[in-house]
Write a structure and sequence with these properties.
The chain has about 240 residues and is an alpha+beta fold. About 40% of the residues lie in helices and about 30% in strands. It contains 2 helices and 12 strands. The radius of gyration is 51 Å and the shape is rod-shaped.
């Protein structure tokens, strides 16, 4: 026993050295195991976070798509509603217009479109003299003396069918009275009616303009003509008081 203790005493340094190395190796091994475990946990956490991020991204995109789809659906619904409203409004307007009957039959007296003397009368059987043209010819309407800017009124309830311009009559408005009767107003300006509009008798159609070059010597005037089924009718025979 004493020999064993002596041996230990003599070799205590080496024994301690060996024991320290063994302990050091154990500590290193334990550190490596812990490090590896931490790395695995970190990788696992990153994977979880990445999965969560992808899940959140997918959810966000899904929400965006859903919201976008909802917004598009709402826009489409609004557009459809607006279009339906416009169609309904147009249909209602058409129904109202259909309900407005233009039923002039020639037995009711018309109004003078303005106060003025007849300077060139209606004449389809014989010719009348046109001073500016220095010639005789037939006249399918009447030429009424007027001053520039005089108001021109509708002679009867009518629907505006055409607004145009010609070299002879300047700016022209044509309207239907119903039953084939049509009226024409020429030498106008400041026209305040539109095609398709229905107006009552006495409503202002426009004002008198300067005369066209065909009527420069006759002076400022309103050209007023009426037809029945396309054939000229003497306006004076239908005007109120005649």
């Amino acid at each position: 026993m004493k020999k064993f203790l002596n041996v230990i005493k003599r070799n205590i340094f080496y024994i301690a050295l060996i024991a320290g190395m063994v302990a050091l190796v154990g500590l290193v091994a334990l550190y490596n195991v812990k490090t590896q475990s931490d790395d695995e946990n970190a990788v696992s956490s990153e994977a979880v976070e990445e999965t969560a991020d992808r899940s959140n991204l997918g959810t966000t995109e899904a929400v965006k798509e859903t919201l976008g789809g909802t917004a598009k659906a709402e826009d489409k619904t609004e557009a459809t509603t607006e279009k339906s409203s416009e169609v309904e409004t147009g249909a209602n307007a058409a129904k109202v217009e259909e309900q407005i009957e233009l039923n002039y039959d020639g037995s009711t007296a018309l109004m003078w479109p303005l106060n003025g003397n007849v300077i060139i009368p209606f004449s389809m059987d014989t010719t009348v003299f046109y001073e500016t043209l220095n010639q005789y010819k037939c006249n399918a309407g009447i030429v009424l003396e007027a001053a520039e800017n005089d108001k021109v009124s509708a002679a009867y309830k009518c629907k505006i069918t055409e607004i145009t311009s010609t070299p002879e009559f300047g700016n022209v408005v044509k309207a239907s009275l119903g039953n084939g009767y049509e009226v024409m107003y020429g030498q106008l300006k400041d026209i305040n009616v539109s095609v398709g509009q229905v107006i009552d008798a006495g409503c202002t159609i426009g004002t008198v303009a300067e005369p066209s070059r065909y009527y420069s010597k006759e002076g400022t005037n309103l050209y007023f003509a009426i037809t029945k089924d396309g054939k000229p009718v003497d306006p004076v025979s239908l005007i109120e008081g005649e």
